[in-house]
Each structure stands twice: as structure tokens, then as C-alpha cells.
Amino acid sequence: MSSPEQILLASLTHLMARWSSAGTQAAVAADAGVQVDPVDLPPLYMLGLEGPARASDLAAALRISRPTATKQLNRLAAAGYVERVPDPADRRASIVQLTAQGIEVHTRLVGQGIVMVSGALTGWSPAESAAFATQLERFVSALGASPSEREPAPDPARSASGSQNGEPE
Question: A GO molecular-function term, please (predicted)?
Fold first, then answer.
């Protein structure tokens, strides 16, 4: 029998593969009426969620190379979705932000994503949906936390025996 961790890992792997696939992203974009290459959607989503950023910070957040991020941002800029502006903290650098058109496109993409999520939650009670959202948010936060920031997992030996060191008292 699979452990909860194995089931969760497999489910998350399937979720990430499905959600990030070019086919799924192309369908979301098409359903939202957005004409953009699916490969260019992650920086658009990230800028919409997190706000303006340096290209290097965006590349790091997306876990892609800086040249890849630059190519994506150049295509998004050519489409009118992003613009580069001087970084107020360092005039030698620039930050990338969504344009008004980019904000509108991001809003439509998020709306279509909500339609997709709502469809997947069909048959769930509002309480189940809310609990799932809360637990998933907590889980994602824990994945991003350093090991020292995470809540310690219970020690099965300690829990079973009631002792502090796992040894019988």
C-alpha cells in the first residue's frame, strides 16, 4: 500500500505535468481569447501574481536561465504585454512589469484558470473546497520554507512510546 506521501507526490507530479503542459496552457489561453505562445505564459503569470521584477529575479523564480527569460520577455514585450522601466533602486538596471494590456490578459487567463479549477471541484462541498485550498496553500508554503522554518514532523517512535527519546521509560 502506498503511503500518503507517495500518493501526494504522484498526484503533484501529475498535476504539474498536466497544468504546465503546452497543450493545457494553449487551451487555457485560447479559451481566454489570448494569443500567446504557451511557453511565454509563466513569466506573464508570475508578473501578474508577484508584480514587477528584474529579469534575473524572474528567471530565478521560474527556475529558468536568464537568456531564456530574456527571450520570453522580448516576445511578451513585442506583443505589448510587458514593458521594461528603470529600476528606481538602481537606474543602471531595469524592471519588467505588465502593461495595461498585459494586466487585462493576465486577468483573463486567471479567470479561465478559475473556470478550470471550478470544473475540477464539481461535486465538492464549499467546506471541502475551502479546506483543500487552505491545506494546499500551507503545503506550498512549507515546500518553499527552509528546513529550519518547517514544522517538525512527529517522531513515530516518540509518539508511540510517549517518551522524549523514543526509548521506553
Answer: DNA binding
